[in-house]
Design brief:
The chain contains 3 helices and 7 strands, in the order βαβαββαβββ. It has a 7-stranded mixed beta sheet, with helices on both faces. The longest helix has 14 residues. The protein has 148 residues and is an alpha/beta fold. It has a single domain, classed as 3-Layer(aba) Sandwich (Rossmann fold). The protein binds adenosine-5'-diphosphate and magnesium ion. Adenosine-5'-diphosphate (ADP) binds next to α1 and α2.
Length: 148
């Protein structure tokens, strides 16, 4: 897809983008969420997962310490990774990485830790801080481009 920029004026806008992506997500998708601490990666992931689960109150803790959380949803399994504390790509096997890629919907915070294991087919989304809010830059797999 062509690189797309979306201005996110407030937290609600970040959550809205998460829901928009959830509406078109399907098994086998990988979304790599980049951006510094506090940029809104977990906020976006929470809205995304809640939308797939069809449950606006679902508890979606940041997987900072567990490194991964898995959710069973009516739209399939969602694997939410936060790789900040990953020691090296070798550690991914223990975190179900192969199983996740086989048919899950996969969201990754700190995808730089994947090194060469980052799948080519991913949607890449970088969140940046602006003076008043956030900005998202999206690129990658073609089909995500429509309507954002
Ligand atoms: N578009 C936005 N504008 C301003 N604040 C936002 C926006 N989106 C999210 N936030 C806030 O920024 C913080 C982001 O935290 P979090 O989602 O945990 O970030 P990360 O996972 O990237 O470290 C939260 O306090 C959230 O309310
Ligand atoms: Mg986070």
């Amino acid at each position: 897809m062509r690189e797309t920029r979306v201005t996110l004026a407030d937290e609600a806008a970040t959550s809205r983008l998460g829901r928009q992506l959830a509406a078109r997500a399907r098994a086998g998708d990988v979304i790599l969420l980049e951006g510094p601490l506090g940029a809104g990666k977990s906020t976006l992931a929470r809205a995304f997962i809640r939308a797939l689960a069809g449950d606006e109150r679902l508890a979606v803790p940041s997987p900072t310490f567990t490194l991964v959380q898995v959710y069973e949803t009516p739209r399939g399994e969602v694997w939410h990774y936060d790789l900040w504390r990953l020691e090296g790509p070798e550690g991914l096997a223990e975190l179900g990485w192969d199983e996740a890629l086989e048919g899950g919907i996969v969201l990754v915070e700190w995808p730089g830790r994947l090194g060469k294991l980052a799948p080519d087919r991913a949607l890449r989304l970088t969140l940046g801080m602006t003076e008043t809010g956030r900005e998202a830059v999206l690129w990658g797999e073609e089909r995500w481009g429509d309507g954002l």
